[in-house]
Design brief:
Distance between the termini: 37 Å
Largest sheet: none
Strand content: under 5%
Length: 216
C-alpha cells in the first residue's frame, strides 16, 4: 500500500464523517466511514481529481448510487435469494469455484457476477473468485469493489462513472454506466428521477451545486 496516497486521500476527502452519518442515518453497522476511507487508497484519483467542487460532486454521485442500490446502506447483500444462482456465467473459463450461488450482490452497489469478482479481485490483489464472501465480511473490501467498478468499468455506458464526473458529462452519465437502457432513454424515468433526487439531497449535505447533465 502506498501510505502517502492513502493519507492524502483521507486528509482531503470531500465527505466528513459527520456528513457520511447525515447521508446514511439508518445504515447497517457494517458500513463504516472508516471502511470507506480505508478503501480510498485503491483509487486515489476518486474524489481526488479536479477542483474541490468536482471532487465533492464525484463523491456525492458515488454515494448516491450506493444509497439507491443498498437502500440507504441498509443491506449488505442481495435480498432476493432466488437470484443468487443466476449470477454465475458458465462461459467463463474459470467457472464458479465458490459455487453457483456464491456471486450474488454484495456491498454498497450490490456487486455481483463471477466475472466481476474475478476482475475486481485481480485488480485489488484479492482472491474474490474463490472467496466472494470477503465482500460481506470486510467493509473496506466492500467499498473497494464499488470503487473498482466506478473507476474502471464503462458498464453499458461509453465512459466510466469517474470519467463522467471528472470530465463534466454529469451525473446522468453515471446512471448510464451503471444501468444503461434499463433506466436511460425512457427505460425507467421514475428510477432516474429517484437517483437524481438522492443526488441533489447528497450534494446539498456536502454543500456543492449538483451541476448539469443530471439525467440520461
Amino acid at each position: 500500500m502506498d501510505r502517502g496516497a492513502c493519507t492524502g486521500g483521507e486528509s482531503d476527502f470531500a465527505v466528513s464523517e459527520a456528513q457520511f452519518d447525515a447521508i446514511f442515518p439508518e445504515r447497517a453497522p457494517f458500513y463504516t466511514y472508516q471502511g470507506l476511507v480505508d478503501a480510498l487508497h485503491a483509487y486515489p484519483g476518486f474524489a481526488g481529481t479536479g477542483t474541490p467542487q468536482t471532487r465533492a460532486r464525484e463523491a456525492a454521485a458515488f454515494l448516491t448510487h450506493a444509497d439507491f442500490e443498498s437502500v440507504g446502506l441498509r443491506y449488505v447483500k442481495e435480498i432476493n435469494e432466488a437470484n443468487y444462482g443466476r449470477k454465475c456465467d458458465d462461459t467463463q473459463p474459470y467457472g464458479c469455484p465458490a459455487g453457483r450461488e456464491a456471486y450474488y450482490g454484495r456491498g454498497p452497489i450490490m456487486f455481483s457476477w463471477n466475472f466481476n469478482y474475478k476482475a475486481a479481485g485481480d485488480a485489488l490483489g484479492l482472491d474474490l473468485l474463490n472467496d466472494p464472501w470477503l465482500v460481506e465480511r470486510d467493509p473496506s473490501v466492500a467499498w473497494q469493489t464499488a470503487l473498482w467498478y466506478w473507476n474502471t468499468q464503462n458498464g453499458p455506458g461509453t465512459m466510466t462513472s469517474h470519467d463522467a464526473m471528472v470530465g463534466g458529462a454529469g451525473f446522468g452519465e453515471t446512471i448510464r454506466s451503471l444501468n444503461g437502457a434499463l433506466e436511460c432513454d425512457g427505460g425507467n424515468p421514475e428510477s432516474v428521477a429517484s437517483r437524481v433526487a438522492r443526488y441533489e439531497r447528497i450534494t446539498g449535505i456536502l454543500g456543492v451545486a449538483p451541476g448539469s447533465g443530471l439525467t440520461c
